[in-house]
Amino acid sequence: MHERTSATGSREPDAPVLEVTDLAVEFMTRSGPIRVVEEVAFRVRPGEIVGLVGESGSGKTVTMMSVLRLVPPPGRITAGRIIVDGTDVRSLSRDGMRGLRGSAVALIPPDATAALNPVVKVGDQVMEGVRSHRPQVSEAEARTLALEMFRRVGLPRPEQRLRRYPHELSGGMQQRVLIASALQMAPRLILADEPTTALDVTIQAQILRLLLAVRDEFGTAILFVTHDLAAVAEICDRVLVMYSGRLVESAPVADLFGQPLHPYTRALMASIPPLSADPPDRLQTVAGAPPEPGSWPEGCRFAPRCDLRTQLGGPDVCTTSQPPLVEVRPGHHAACHFATSEAGVRAATDLAATVEEAEAVVLPESVQPGGAA
Amino acid sequence: MNVIRRLWRIRSARVGVVLAVLLLTTAILGPMLLPLDPNAIDVRARFAGPSTAHWLGTDDLGRDTFTRLVHGSRMSLFIAALSALLGTLLGVTLGVITGFLGGWVDVAGMRVVDLFFAIPTLLVAIGIVALFGPSATTTILALGIAYTPLYARLVRGTVVSVRSRTYVDASRVLGARGVRLLRTDILPGIVPIALVQTTALLGFALVDEASLGFLGLGVQPPDASWGQMINAGRQFIFQAPWLTLIPGFAVILAVFSINLIGDGLRDALDPRASQRVGDT
Amino acid sequence: MARYALQRILLALPLLFGLSLLVFFYVRIIPGDPVTAMLGVQANPDLVARLRAQYGFDEPILDQYLMWLGNVLQGDFGISFRSRQAVAPIIVDRIPATLQLMLGGLFVSLVVAIPFGIRAGMKYRQRSDTVISTITLVGLGSPGFWLGTILMVIFALVLKWLPSQGYTPFTQDPVASIRYMILPSVAIGLVGAPFLVRVVRSTVVEIMKEPFVPYADARGLREQVIFWRYIIRNLLPQFVVVLGVLVGALLAGSVAIEALFNWPGMGRIFIGAVTERDYAMIQALILVYGVIFVVINLIAEIAQAALDPRIRLK
Questions:
Q1: Residues linked to residue A108 through DSSP beta bridges, in sequence order
Q2: Which residues of B touch C260 (CB under 8 A)?
Q3: Number of domains in chain C
Q4: A111: chain C residues, CB-CB within 8 Å
Q5: How far is CA A291 from CA A294, A296, C175, in A?
Q6: C145/B contact by beta carbon, under 8 A
């Protein structure tokens, strides 16, 4: 089971499983192309869990789907390189791409209920994945594999579960089925697209723990797309923050929460409701609405909603030049002209303190890797 | 109105509207403008091919086909419109009563509707024709009644859903009850469905009128309607194929234009129009 | 599953009972009564009285109904007002021809509609969809008897490939029987096809929008697997229900087609009975048509449940 199936490309032991460079995605509309993602670049190393965070419409899901070359029409990848496990995704043939999907890279979709075929037993659905990729695998072998996977993702009484239809399983179990299905080809990388949003809070925690366990047991890297910062804090090693189609910050999780360098990241963090005994006087939200794709403002796209810019008296540079994503501190990148300004640093430190306080309540349990979920 | 503007923006619907207007104008004004009597018999000119005197030739009694076709259009469209209207009135009334009152009225009403569902529509219509004898009036009555069950069920469903929505909504809190609730919430909720459904009925009625006419159970000679003309022409299909073909084309054209409008209306009324296809 | 089927069958029983009431009272709402309606107002009063007594119109209505229902359940549908013969054997004689025509029509509808409906749905709003949908809209307005007339002229009278009218029972001579049924089946099938194309198309479009289709793509499943197991397999349950509805349309359409092709089915005697106001016959025929339709829809519903686990368990 632990054989690596991705025969594509040669790689060094620590080479990234995913390397995205200068990705641009455009939506073809009647009034011309609209850029929804641009200049996105990041890496995911083996066994690493990387969070990709942003509001809806920020381009995080589009970025993720680009890896599978499944950007929904009218979207199209127009620039950049996507290397998965040594293979250049954009140059693959149709069949080659099909071979990569579900084997080297597996997807865990947001709504398990909707992602499962309602009229086919879940066991058969899981088995058809292996049989599609490796026709020589017999029905019986596929069943054994599915059974093992069901067991490993903590589905009780797996033999019976195999024969169930999707609607006969709870939401959490359905999500486990999808995770089992994703794991059976021993992928190098899992793309988890808001895998917990459709679930109850308690089940959410279980699924997050399961993802951690998966990484620890299988060594699978996970690109975890979410808008839930608490979940990111719980399981991610590194975090990418997207805003309006661009990466605005990238940092190891501790650094990001310890000293968020981009005003948008700070605004996101401030909007997490602390579950402490004293509710805050007012719940902060990120003021204003994100700009519509295609009508991005000049300069920094966050400028119209930016606290820091207001504090600084509205410097012109914000609306005239697009801040590049630069390494501000070792391993910590941000795209803000004033990331290291006095006001910025102060805001970051202040926020970090309150977040820490809140986190002590929000995320009390330390994560148990491999723990029975 | 907003819907009309949106309808007009859909190209196929625009084609449908233009065709329908042309047909209607012909049917309404045509009989007044044409010089010939549709029932004038001229045995010397039997089965004349198309000519300047008789644009579409003549039939077995030497009657002018074009004139009869235009008069037939008036008859067919008139019957279709009235039976669709009757079906709408009966269907909406029954649907609103059962859906609004609920309880045993609802149960009883829907059981009766189910019964009619057990018999294909055209057969219901033929059964009604058998009661009253074939005529244009019977055709309207028969089709109108035959279309009622489907319509009633559709309206009832909408009323029930609107009612349950508004009950948890503001109206109830504000004390809107009975007739007022009917006027402010329920009837407006029905309008879009009714528009689409009535348009569909028009199309059904045109084909069904033709079927009844063809079976000799609709409009009776010497009056002309499309179905009746197809039936009359059929015997002379070799001598004068146009007698059969042309009224058939007329039915197809009319139903086509109505369905274009119907599909367009459905899209125009549907907020998710851009990605949706309607069902049948 | 068996429980669901049983439940459906039990639910159909009151419907059949209601149908019998409807059909029974149908004759009673005739202005005057059926006998005067049939014989005319100037008819000999003695004859009218005798017939009224013979058909039991003088009895209390409930007794009449119970007697009638009892007879019907024993296969006795009464005596034709016209021919004075028992109605039931005449109808029973005609049922196979009508069912044969219906099956032929269904076959043609399916063969035409399935590929085009699926194609249009999968190529939604692309060129092949536009072409198919436009032809469908034209077809929706074509009366079956008119299509039938044209088919008859072309293939029977001009090309002489097929017989124009008539019928041979399948059991007697299968080849001849099929030759006779081709034209009427095509005529009636082409009436059902556009309706079916539209339903298949919109159902496929809805299925393609379900998240499980792109997710299947993301799993790298083979295209055939996605097509058969995801699209077709999800189309089936809704499809069989639509077939039930389609049968109703075909039954209704068969009346005119039978008249056109001189096809000795129930439709022929139905029209005869209506023009002659033979109410005993009309009554029996409506009941038989209704029962056929109800039974077929029942089968369709059970088949749907067999194909869709979600319905079965409700």
A1: A192
A2: 234
A3: 1
A4: 211
A5: 8, 6, 71
A6: yes
C-alpha of C15 from chain center:
17
> What is residue A301's three-state secondary structure?
coil
Domain spanning B2-41+54-279: which superfamily? MetI-like (1.10.3720.10)
CB of C184 within 8 A of CB of C104?
yes
Predicted-complex ipTM score = 0.89
Domain extent listing, chain B: 2-41+54-279
The residues spanned by each domain of chain A are 18-236, 261-367
> In the numeric block, which tokens belong to residue A100?
């990569």
Q: Which two tokens stand for residue A153?
A: 């993702």
Tens digit of each residue's pLDDT (9 = 90 or more) over A23-68: 999 998 888 889 999 999 999 999 999 999 998 888 999 999 999 9
Write out the two tokens for B270: 């549907």
- Distances in whole angstroms, Cα of residue A331 to Cα of each of A14, A18, A327, B192, C14: 17, 17, 7, 59, 75
CATH topology of domain A18-236: Rossmann fold (3.40.50)
Say what the alpha-carbon torsion angle B82, B83, B89, B90 is, to the nearest 10 degrees: 150
Q: Which amino acid is at A71?
A: V
Q: Which residue is closest to A127 within chain C, CA to CA? A: C221
Asked if residue A22 lies in contact with residue A81, where contact means CB atoms within 8 angstroms, the answer is yes
- For the entire predicted model, the pTM comes to 0.86
CB proximity C154 to B under 8 Å: no
Predicted confidence at residue B275, as pLDDT, reads: 37
Indicate contact of B with C: 3+ CB pairs under 8 A.
yes
Q: Which amino acid is at A224?
A: F
User: C76: burial class by Cβ within 10 Å (0-12, 13-18, 19+)?
Assistant: middle
Which run of H or E residues covers position B190?
A: helix B187-214
Nearest to C282 by CA among C73, C34, C109, C55: C34
C-alpha distances (whole Å) from B143 to each of A54, A84, A154 are 59, 65, 61
